[in-house]
Please model this.
Amino acid sequence: MKLATIAMATLLTAIALPPQSAIGPPPPRARVARDLLVSWQGAGQVQRVSRPGHYQFDFACSNARGSTEQLTLDVTPQAQAEIVQQGYRECTPEDVRRLTQEGSEENVQLSDAVGSVQFLPQPQPLPLPGGQTVQLGAGLTTAGGALCLVPAARPDLGQFLRTTVPGDRLAIKGRLLPGPLGIAPGGALLVDGLEFPGRQRGPQDSAWAVKVIWDGREVASFSDLGDHPVLLPCTQHRGGTEQAVLRLREGRVVDLSVEGHPVMAELADTPQSRSWGLQGRSGLAPDEGMLFYFERPLRAIFVMKTVSFPIAIAFISTEGILVNIEKLNPGDQQGVTSAGNVCYVLEMQQDWFDKNGVRAGGRVVIP
Model:
């Protein structure tokens, strides 16, 4: 046995790997999805919006015991710029560097892992050969060394890039910018398309515009990914306030089922995404979880670190059988261990398995 340890920001996972000849199942089929999490100050309540529509939520009032406040949301899809799919030359990162040095301005596409990402605090002009100028909003360096520049005029690309972590594999499309450039002597790729390879978007996963309606009037609106705190005057107590936090996300999810119960699980399948885990969350919405995937069967130990809400951890075998289900609370120092080798770990609300009558030995169907 070889022992490897992964230090996680939200959970510390110690993994004992069997011999390298052990082969696990292929990665789960994931899709790119957008959703909106709505949480209420101090109440630990989290609601999830998974598709555009009109929503009303009742939350416990923090200023008047037994009373509730109502929050209304209008979520509408936004049209996104179409990406021309024709005329892209398949390249490697080495090809990109070579072609830019040769002065090529072809449209190319490549697949590579995220190396590092930088977002500019304000658009930065980049003079191009021929007298043109492009305003940049972000830059991406791939693991293979390709420099990719994201124009400020494409905020949808910047929003997508914010959902990635180093190690995520991306399909990148764009136009070559031959060197020398002011910030890229060897040239770069001006991006016009970013996707997770092999994953398709559904109509419900397009960009969203969100309107927050409170006491009959619109008090906030946004379309950018990230956290959007909204301070609201309490309708039950004069001078009091409530705060809702709306988190608009885009990421990879797996539509799986646990003993026939549907679950939408965010996918953590790289060392980086497993390290990020549930960091910064205030809770999980009903029937929402996080699925950790490992390429080889292993014994796993999860120790609670900075997760601020109680969770249940289900260890799942290569064949999709629930090996054991354990519970952890904030502040717990004692780890929980899989009862056998597993390739999947599913984190859910702590009472989810009990509420649905799910026990060890149950079956999980992972596409």
Observations:
- The two ends are 30 Å apart (CA to CA).
- Residues 93-101 form the longest helix (9 residues).
- Confidence is low (pLDDT under 50) at residues 1-21, 80-85.
